[in-house]
Amino acid sequence: MPQLRYRTAGESHGKALIALVEGMPAGVTVDVNSINAELRRRQGGYGRGGRQRIEHDAVEVLSGVRRGKTIASPVVLQILNKDSRLDEAPPVTRPRPGHADLAGSIKWLTTDCRETLERASARETAARVAAGALSRCLLREFGIDVFGYVVSIGTAMSSVSFEEPLDELKRRRDASDVYCPDEAASEQMREQIRQAKAAGDTLGGLVEARVFGSPPGLGSCVHFDEKLDGRLAQAVMSIQAFKAVEIGLGRDVASLPGSQVHDEIGFDASRRDTPALGFTRKSNNAGGLEGGMTNGQPVVVRGAMKPISTLLQPLASVDLNTKEVTKAAYERSDVCAVPAASVIVENVVAFEIARAFVEKFGGDSITEVRANYDNFLRTARRLPL
Ligand SMILES: Cc1cc2nc3c(=O)[nH]c(=O)nc-3n(C[C@H](O)[C@H](O)[C@H](O)COP(=O)(O)O)c2cc1C
User: What number does the ligand 1 atom closest to the CA of 306 have?
Assistant: First the structure.
């Protein structure tokens, strides 16, 4: 059975970013507009640098799609770089604390940090977002939706209630240039970014993705590398500048008693037809994951992004050629990329859910996947067999 997975290629100032996605079942309708909409969101957000004004990210589908549908062969998505000058870009010899510069230069035995930073750069996430957005074309067929937003920037913290309809939250998030549905908090986030920029400084923050409509049983408790919570954590932690990942209540579980952490189980026969099969919970502190498997409740994943390491007022560093203590290099950079990061988290989470979905219900074509999915839910509703 083909596994759904992807690789990316490309440098920040190379010719293009590429995502190669393997294992998409045949017959999935590929909505290129929805992929490009995610790429545009990734480029936006208050606090980004000049690069995003140069680029106009859009995918060209190079393979794997015929007449708008997948044909089971690998899908290659290409995003051309307008600012393409890999050979001309000057060497960087003063590594930035917090970037990949020093570790990579020593690893690859060079004093030109550019050879590392071109690939370490988060420009690569354009390809990850494209792959994630492609996988959502599959998830959409099964009513699975993912919503990402900014929880906090600096010390400005939002408060978002998921009792509200998702469409309304999406509308408010999309009206906010910091991608946060809480209008008052958006204003504070913007002000903190403005102040950081004026001080030549940078800011990080927290972002969250919620997956709605996922059936129980995705992932597995059998092996460590099959556990979906672990796989989601890896997908989010591997995003440039992410330093912590939480599921559901996250680190707060450590300080509360069990009675306040675990989500009591109920049953409502009138909701038997939902993906949760009628099982209800009084809370969702587990973030929809127990034993490394989805339990039918919304999956909740949060990630913490550190402040951007390229500072207009650079920190101390050492010139790799002369070993003189000096200031770190500066090149055009974001002040805050947390809004963009929320789009990346949303799409990498989507990909992991799609991967687990194909693992459980996989077939060569979407028709087969749908039959497997329907059969599973039908059988699960009949329990005990
Ligand atoms: C959307 C996004 C945009 C970023 N933009 C920049 C940037 O403009 N300048 C910068 O120095 N780092 C930026 N970063 C962070 C670096 O790519 C990251 O810190 C670096 O690759 C080192 O990896 P690490 O922080 O995970 O250790 C960005 C990260 C993300 C997710």
Answer: 25
